[in-house]
Amino acid sequence: MSDIDKLWQMQKHTSNYLAIKRAIKELTNKNNIKKISSELKELEKELEELKNNIDKNEKLLIKNNLMLKDYDYRLKKVEKSLYEENITDLKQLSFLDKERKDILKEIEEKETEILFTMDETDRLKKQLEEKKKNTNKIRASYNDAVKEYKSTIEELNKKASQEAREIKKIASTIDEKLYHQFSKLVNTKGSAVVEVIDNRCSGCNMVLPWVLVSKLRESDEIVTCENCQRILYLSRDIRNGNNE
Fold first, then answer.
1. Distance from C-alpha of 3 to C-alpha of 10, rounded to nearest angstrom
2. Domain of 43: which CATH number?
3. Residue 69's closest CA among 25, 114, 16, 133?
4. How far apart are CA 16 and CA 236, in angstroms?
5. What gap in Å lies between CA 44 and CA 40, rounded to an integer?
6. pLDDT tens digit string along 194-219?
7. Structural domain of residue 188, as residue ranges?
8. Which of the chain's ends, N or C, has fewer CB atoms near its CB within 10 Å?
9. Residues 126 and 213 in one domain
């Protein structure tokens, strides 16, 4: 295989390699894993807040029920003094009656507060269950996206490695200066070897002098475009006269 054919093969493998690397970069930038992850973190934060609120309410219920028991105990004590003891002092009776009414009011307020807290806790628990279901769906979606992303990236990296091996294999068979020229063109122009199509350089679209095209047809010499300095490649079929 001539140097120009080797360079053409190396260019195809290089183009494939660069295309794969671009695909990996685009996939990394455009993948929705970060979006799903952010959404999942927000849901988990909301779940934690709901759990904390439920925990606070349940502690409040315990505290209020204890207070209610204390009120009941005080009420029974006052009523016993009021109705069972033989108290004749009107002032004391009035005081006990007022105390009884005050305790009854506190009991009523506390029972209302307990009922409200119970309703609120039930509402939060239902909200928590719904949020858990939604979070599980998002988590499953996230896991699937990560799995698919890793699989795709792994496959692309595998293909990139195959192309890199082919490039290295061909590079080892050509002159070091020629490989340096090839690498420099790839780094500066994106491609080093371009095909001649309809007597034009496909790199810059310039019409090539006929003498240059004839030179490409008649030999395997390395010829560059006078305009863009890329290495020109004429297909072997044309060089062999099959398309003349």
1. 10
2. 1.10.287.1700
3. 114
4. 21
5. 6
6. 999 999 999 999 999 999 999 999 88
7. 175-239
8. C
9. no
